[in-house]
Amino acid sequence: MIGSWVYPQAVGRSLHAMLPQPAWLPMKANQTCLFVGRASRPHSLRGCITWCQAPLCTRRLLTQDGGNSTGATLLGPLGLGLGLASFGGSASSRRFRRSGQPVVTLRAAATATPPASILFRQDAGPPVELLPSATDDWNGDSIVLFLQAQEEGEKGSLGLGSMGEALDKRLNGAIRAFIAEEEFSAEEGKATSFQVFGHLVKRVVLIGCGPASKDTDWRLAGAAAAGALKSKVGSAGFASIDGIETQALLEGVLLGLHADKRFQGSKTPEKDKTVKGPTKLELLGNFPADSAAAAQRAAAVASGVIFARELVNGPANVVDPVNMSLAAVEMANRLGLTAKILDEVACEELGMGSFLAVSRASNLGARLIHLTYSPGGEVKRKIGVVGKGLTFDSGGYNLKAGAGSMIEMMKFDMGGSASTLGTAATIGQLKPKDVEVHFVIAACENMVSGNAGALRPGDIITAMDGTTIEVNNTDAEGRLTLADALLYCQKQGVTEVVDVATLTGACMVGLGQGIAGMWSNSDDLAGRLEAASRKSGEKLWRMPLEDSYWDGMKSDFADMKNTGPRFGGAITAALFLQKFVQKDVSWVHLDIAGPVWAEKPKGVNGTGGTGCMVRTLSEFIGEP
């Protein structure tokens, strides 16, 4: 609620001591109010989206009486419409709050804006400029040459191409002499470099592209170049060769240059906290005619991937549900998307019992994030992207414990929501025609507490469509939040929906850390996602929706359980989600538990969050 405090008659003594007679009081922009119980309230509160935030919170003991009206108790400024108790609500929510039962409420401090460290950065790399000049008259700092390897069984020296030959002549044969001395074979993805003295060009970087008979992975080539340039400053020139792909090359360079140093503190030397690398990228020679537009697309995609990476890398005490929702709104406002944030009260009024059951054990509350991209003209396609948004997953009462539990890594359990927001940022810049996209995230934590309504093994909860779910494992919580998020997204009129989630360890075991699992009820949609992944350089593997496995998900007391037998866990998780997809909606489920995180640098990825599926989803949404 924005604009006033509501101050009914039934209030506690402490509040009487603070305020004058019951009245409507002016409310500052950074304040909000928490209502507890079944009291009536102004209609404007129902489902309201509040933008107010607060620098503090307090902990109070609140009691609920058994009458038809109760007091509104001020907990200090709480921020963004933090609603704990039901205003009327459902019987399932009220059963946790018996007459006279104490309700202890704690909500984390929220600030007026999210931390700057998690805001979207549109300039996520050095600027790119196209120069028609050849290498023999270019006077920048580092120049990059792309070399093709010899075919198998072929002998002789590597071809440098026309621009490489001209530069080698300018450098008095230094390039060929270095190749011979280092025995550089131009193997795909390999890089080497040497310093040049007595010339305006200071360094020559050689990138292997593999033999000409095989398609060159230009993202890998760009990432290899970035690795060689990371410690260098000044301008970097890239010499064109036949077959070069501008967008893929620049995506590789920009993503390869990215380094996340946001949380290094006073014990890290300043020189180590400074992100190094070239200050400008220059494309030299005869690049393809559409290279200017391709460079813009590459920058948009890279900025979206980096946004996703940095959200995943951010610790859970920074990237929490409230801050993530604020970062989403800030990004949407800058890029022309519309933003709608639903708090717990609004979600409860919509019947999102499955999502809220997961969030109740956390003291940080929950947020349903809904961003919309509209093309501004005729809409031919309506697509939904739903991201799992567990900003921290303790496992709940089925606590993650012991070797291999990865509890210390569970900040990345919001990787699906990071990919969703990264895709939204990319689409907001690319502005594809004819397509409307709804980006939906159910953001919360999965914790352990004595909070009223906190999820326990054996509980039966109710999703937005009335489906009842017996919770036999609180560590299978992501699917519970996705169920309501999928239902909400479909209410927006989408005909195709893709969910992205770090859903199961079983998928990671089956496919490893480099491939995302894909399940779909539509061969056409699955085929288009696979094509988009190949074009964007990411890997998917389609998995079966084996109906017979559903037998293990049946419950004696509810419509279903949330987990099945030990084997085939990634498949039964997908089958669970499918139960919340309407028959006339084409759906894909992407399990990114493996590729969401890189343990060490490889290809375009550094250590940490990868921003996986941003490239694939952006390519898919932007397809004609």
Describe the SSE topology.
Layout (H helix, E strand, L loop, with lengths): L3 E2 L7 H6 L6 E2 L7 E2 L24 E4 L8 E2 L17 H4 L7 E4 L22 E4 L10 E8 L11 H10 L3 H9 L8 E5 L7 E9 L6 H12 L5 E5 L6 H12 L12 H4 L6 E5 L6 H23 L7 H15 L2 E5 L1 H6 L3 H7 L7 E7 L7 E13 L21 H16 L4 E12 L13 E3 L5 E3 L7 H13 L5 E6 L3 H7 L4 E5 L2 H14 L3 E3 L17 E2 L7 H10 L7 E6 L5 E2 L9 E2 L4 H8 L3
Parallel strand pairs: 7-12, 8-10, 8-11, 11-12, 15-16, 15-19, 18-22, 19-23, 20-21
Antiparallel strand pairs: 1-2, 3-5, 4-6, 9-10, 13-14, 14-16, 17-18, 20-23, 24-25
Plain-language structure description:
- The chain has 624 residues and is α/β, with parallel strands linked by helices.
- The protein is 28% helix and 19% strand.
- Strand 17 and strand 18 form a beta hairpin.
- Helix 5 packs parallel to helix 6 and helix 6 runs parallel beside helix 8.
- The chain starts with a strand and ends with a helix.
